[in-house]
Amino acid sequence: MNVTKKEFTISVFSENHVGVLHRITTIFTRRGINIESITVSESEIHGVHRFNIVVTETEDHIKKVVKQIEKQIEVLRSFYYPLSKIIYQEIALYKLPIKAVQNGAGIEQIIRDNHARILTVEKDFLVIEKTGHKGETQALFEQLEPFGLLEFVRSGRVALAKSAKSFKDYLKVPELGKRITEQEVREMAEKID
Amino acid sequence: MESAIEPAKAKIEKKLKISGSEALVRSLLAEGVDLMFGYPGGAIMPVYDAMYDFQDQLHHVLTRHEQGAIHAAQGFARATGKVGVVLATSGPGATNLITGIADAMIDSTPLVCITGQVFSTLLGTDAFQETDVVGISIPVTKWNHQVTRAEEIPEAIAKAFYIAKSGRPGPVLIDITKDAQVQEFDFSYKKCEEIRSYHPIPALDKSMVEKAAKLINEAKKPYLLFGQGVILSHAEAELKAFIEKTGIPAAWTILGLSALESNHPLNVGMLGMHGNYGPNLLTNDCDVLIAVGMRFDDRVTGKVSDYATQAKIIHLEVDPSEIDKIIKADVPLLGDAKIGLKALLEKVKPNEHKEWLQRFRDCDKKEYEKVIKDELYPSKPELTMGEVIRMIAEKTAGDAIIVTDVGQHQMVTCRYSKFIKSKSNITSGGLGTMGFCLPAAIGAKMGAPDRQVIGVIGDGGFQMTIQELGTIFQTEIDVKILILNNQFLGMVRQWQQMFFDKRYSATEMVNPDFQKISAGYGIESRKIDSRDVLEDAIDTFLNHKGSYLLEVIVGKENNVFPMVPAGCAVSEIILE
Ligand SMILES: Cc1ncc(C[n+]2csc(CCOP(=O)(O)OP(=O)(O)O)c2C)c(N)n1
């Protein structure tokens, strides 16, 4: 059994009903697992919502948590992935006072180097946007901080599996929402290092 | 479309607008409900009003506390296999249900709880008697849902019943705002047969069945453990056929108790902390362990890292999240216990394991000498719990429904009761809820009126839901109440004696006169403290027409043995 904690992304596909988020989060709360980030949006299937939840935990616990999530009546499927198995992205917004760009202090170079872009320039402030992994948005944060950063926000992770399968493949009628089998859990686990 | 309402009536109802409350009543009738337990209050009054016109079809039992109502519904469900239905008002009515809901959740008991809620316009405003019962009950319900419009009621109820009883059963809560109870709409009812995100019974994996059968056929010391899954999936006959064909000894969890008759030669006894010696000890000696419809509770496994590490584990279980949760399965058999056992039965070869079975018998002998003899046939003057239970088992010939509370008496009753019928042992296993017994016994009797129902309670637990004597009084049902009075919170005291240096902190009970209390409720009673009158007292108790309370004063500081001390391996079970 692997007892080292690693970062995992859990994807949950569920019906869009009141209370599903609460049901899912209590499963983490019960085990004292801290959710590092969470995003929710409608998936490629109308009416099916996708949660992406990032946690750092042992794989053993994650496996059990995923099964307990799947057990919720409104959950269609749930999967978990290590970093190596997903394509993911986050977005960060940085608000700076307008004077930060006025005194020729090299903001332009920073934006270029980081492949960031300016979203808006207002009378008193401007907003810079950067998409990237946390390390990248954090690096830009550190570079902009000396300029008197007014506000900063980073989104939760959006992630897709590195596989040509669509979630629809798992949901094809009449198998719509077929529960994950023990065999699949084991196969999934074997694929993960 | 399936409906219990006769077609003629249904046609009229299609045209007639009815209130949400009446729709709820008609929905319950359509689900075949004829009995429910509850307690009224402001936010559920329209429903109670609608029930007034249906009293002949839908009987309501007024308990004395909502906790009593829900435990009664649990007792009903466990005795009948049907869904228990509970009604309560908002706020305190709803929160009083929580203990029972949690109990039903952990013990997989099908319940539909209906709570009234404040007007939908007042939700979230801290209105009078508003609690977020949907939020509170999320962690302890299989599913819950709030209804704010009358026309949602039939579908919500249909889903509630389907979810509560299918797959691994559990409690469901439907919270209905008061405005939804009074609004009118065109009623029609359709039973729920499918929910796209919910697959209650996973299909059995044939390759796993092959693997399991191979392990079983090659095993020298196979051993089967069964839990309530056998009862819930009606797999009693399949279990028996399976062990008889293979000659495999079988032991039970206290939730599985009564699924296999007590005197079956392959029934080797009770698992767990106060279970039998052989079943615990030999768990760590078998070569193949077949777990059927049980979930490896820590009271059963003891120290998990030392649990059956030598054995190949086959786990037949309907709930995927139970597989590998505690004990890793070498062969996971995901599926219904009945279907799984049937499939296995075809693949296993007839066998006998005489020497292996003899090992259990040898352990029994040792346990009898060291523990059982003195418990059942004591030489000391003070009465033991065991001798009382033994006598009841003899006199009822194992035919009664035995309901227990939580504590020493529960362990003793499970150990020494005898059963010949399934669904006859009703106890709070997973949650260990004191106060469960009295209301659960009431519910069991109402579900199985033709059977003798005996509640066995400690002096502590009796006082947790003692008010339900009022329910007995009002309904005039026949429940036999046996108080095994040791004047202590016995089980806690035993731990204090063994692990806390006999420092009896807050466990001594100064008890009231239970006979006077019982007299106040019109229930005949007797109190005894000597062996000479035990048999006579039990005869009176069992043969009395109507409810009866028998209080037996037992040894104050008697302990339950054997015991797997907390944190120890099952093989470290101690006999004294
Ligand atoms: C509601 C609740 N509170 C506390 C406990 C902890 N507890 C477990 S057994 C026990 C003692 C029970 O005493 P009694 O009812 O007299 O039964 P005995 O053990 O003496 O047979 C207690 C306090 C519990 N199980 N349930």
Q: Percent range for helical residues of chain A? A: 25-40%
Q: Looking at this structure, what is the CATH superfamily of the largest domain in chain B?
A: Thiamin diphosphate (ThDP)-binding fold, Pyr/PP domains
Order of H and E elements of chain A: EHEEHEEHHEEHEEHH
What gross morphology of chain B would you assign? globular
- CATH fold-level assignment of the largest domain in chain B: Rossmann fold
**Overall pLDDT confidence of chain A:** 88
**Separation of the first and last Cα atoms of chain B:** 61 Å
Count of alpha and pi helical runs of chain A = 7
Name the poorly predicted regions of chain A: 172-178
Based on the structure, what is the oligomeric state of the protein chains? Answer: heterodimer
- Count of distinct strands of chain A: 9
CATH architecture descriptor text of the largest domain in chain B: 3-Layer(aba) Sandwich
Largest interface: A-B, 27 and 26 residues
Briefly note the CATH topology name of the largest domain in chain A: Alpha-Beta Plaits
Weakly predicted, low-confidence segments of chain B: 1-8
Structural class of chain A: alpha+beta
CATH class of the largest domain in chain B: Alpha Beta
Protein traits:
heterodimer, A: 193 residues, alpha+beta, Alpha-Beta Plaits, 2 domains, five-stranded antiparallel beta sheet, four-stranded antiparallel beta sheet, 7 helices, 9 strands, 31% helix, 37% strand, B: 576 residues, alpha/beta, Rossmann fold, 3 domains, six-stranded parallel beta sheet, 24 helices, 20 strands, 38% helix, 16% strand, globular, binds thiamine diphosphate
Secondary-structure map:
The complex is a heterodimer of chains A (193) and B (576).
Chain A: E1 5-15, H1 20-30, E2 35-42, E3 48-58, H2 59-70, E4 75-82, E5 86-97, H3 99-102, H4 107-113, E6 117-121, E7 125-132, H5 134-144, E8 151-154, E9 158-161, H6 167-171, H7 182-191
Antiparallel strand pairs in A: 1-3, 1-4, 2-3, 5-7, 5-8, 5-9, 6-7
Chain B: H1 7-15, E1 17-19, H2 20-30, E2 35-38, H3 45-51, E3 59-62, H4 66-80, E4 84-88, H5 92-95, H6 98-106, E5 111-117, H7 133-137, E6 143-147, H8 153-165, E7 171-177, H9 178-182, E8 184-186, H10 206-218, E9 222-226, H11 229-232, H12 236-246, E10 250-252, E11 267-270, H13 277-281, E12 288-292, H14 298-301, E13 312-317, E14 331-334, H15 337-347, H16 354-376, H17 385-396, E15 401-404, H18 408-416, E16 425-426, H19 437-447, E17 453-458, H20 459-462, H21 469-475, E18 480-485, H22 490-499, H23 514-520, E19 524-528, H24 534-543, E20 548-553
Parallel strand pairs in B: 2-3, 2-4, 4-5, 5-7, 6-7, 9-10, 9-12, 10-11, 12-13, 13-14, 15-16, 15-17, 17-18, 18-20, 19-20
Antiparallel strand pairs in B: 1-8
Helix pairs in contact in B: 2-3, 2-8, 4-6, 4-19, 10-15, 12-15, 17-18, 17-24
The structure holds thiamine diphosphate (TPP).
Thiamine diphosphate (TPP) binds next to helix 18, helix 20 and helix 22 of chain B.
